[in-house]
Amino acid sequence: MTDLKSQLIAQATAEGFDLTRICRPGDVPQVPARLAEFLAAQRHGQMHWMEDRSHWRGNPAALWPEARSVIMLGESYTPKENPMQTLSQVDVGTISVYARNRDYHDLVKKRLKRVARWLIAKAEQSGVETPQVKVFVDTAPVPEKPLGQAAGLGWQGKHTNLVSRDLGSWFFIGSVFTTLEIDPDKGETDHCGSCRACLDVCPTDAFPAPYQLDARRCISYLTIEHKGPVDPELRAKMGNRIYGCDDCLAACPWNKFAIEAREARYHARDDLLAPPLAELAQLDDAAFRAKFSGSPIKRIGRDRFLRNVLYAVGNSGDLSLLPVAQQHCQANDPTVSDAACWAVERLQNDANRLE
Is the pLDDT of residue 38 over 80? Predict the structure, then answer.
């Protein structure tokens, strides 16, 4: 299978992937205990699906017992611009780099399917029994980051995300499970050393310790997964981050080896690079859906997005945005109304301090 593997890597590269490595489904024996500890501490917050499907997430071999190899693929989405540059612009929103254009789930999955189809065809040409395949990209109970480390894509850094010596922190992960036996690669070892950059930069102290994440304090979780009002103590620390957060990724010194995304649809749309909060707050449901068509942002819905925008308005200190918040104080959605009233009170307090 050595020749097939080299051809597989070449094909995956041609399809747009920057890294291709192989492991076995059972190469992550540490996952069940770590996942159980995470869930027992309730650090998954409202992500109940993690607990409901933990028997699969903790054991990839149980997800599909027939699988013999896992092809782990990485694709760079490194931005052209400084991902932190909008954090100091109080009148605009900051959107996570991966969500500033097309939804990566769709793009990566199409590439994975093409690689999988090629693998089936190539195996058949070689006289091997037709393999079965399944593709996954962040939409199934698959421990992708541990599998990525087992395969050698990178290692899980102190921020719990995968870090690569070739791509830094800015890359998507996809996997192809197959019944085909393919020679595995050597797993990656930790190269974080004494660095604490990702831990120290976190605005909400979401890392109880290195290599541990409390999602309930993570801005990515709060702006995307969390339903209802956010704890007032955390709202003030969210700044103008209205969808996701890149601080821990951007702080990683391994990004000096990152390569710019080859896929143009990962580069930021002009209107999502520094969108004015005043304009975002005016979006009704139809306008929200139109603006974010094809974007992962659309998935959280207009009301949750508006909640995030209003928190950013409250954190702005920009009194010109006071009417923007006031218009939503009587919103039908109680979470939006609560966010608006909080923003009004916060801006008024800022005004009083200036008098």
Answer: yes
Mean pLDDT (whole number) for 107-125: 95
Please give the average per-residue pLDDT across 250-276, as a whole number. 94
User: Cβ-count burial of 88 within 10 angstroms (0-12 exposed, 13-18 middle, 19+ buried)?
Assistant: exposed
Mapping DSSP to helix (H, G, I), strand (E, B) and coil, where does residue 69 land?
strand
Other Cβ atoms closer than 10 A to 152: 20
Chain-centre distance for alpha carbon 17: 18
Q: What is the arithmetic mean of pLDDT over 282-311?
A: 97
Q: Do 145 and 132 meet the contact criterion of CB atoms below 8 Å apart?
A: no
What does the pLDDT read at residue 125?
Answer: 86
Listed by start position, the domains of the chain span: 2-78+102-178, 197-349
Q: What is the pLDDT of residues 269-296, one digit of tens each?
A: 999 999 999 999 999 999 999 999 999 9
Q: CB under 8 Å, gap of 24 or more: what pairs does 290-299 form?
A: 294/102, 294/103, 294/106, 295/99, 295/101, 295/102, 295/103, 296/98, 296/99, 296/103, 296/104, 296/105, 297/95, 297/99, 297/243
Residue 87 predicted with pLDDT over 90 = yes
SS3 53: coil
If you average pLDDT over residues 154-174, what whole number do you get? 96
Residues facing residue 260 across a β-bridge: 78
Q: Render 210-279 in DSSP notation, one character per residue.
A: TTB--GGG-HHHHHHT--SPPPHHHHTTSTTEEE---HHHHT-GGGGG--B-S-GGGSPPHHHHS-BHHH
Please, what sign has the CA dihedral across residues 226, 104, 299, 271? positive
- State the pTM of this model: 0.94
CA distance 344 to 252: 36
- Residues marked active site are found at 138
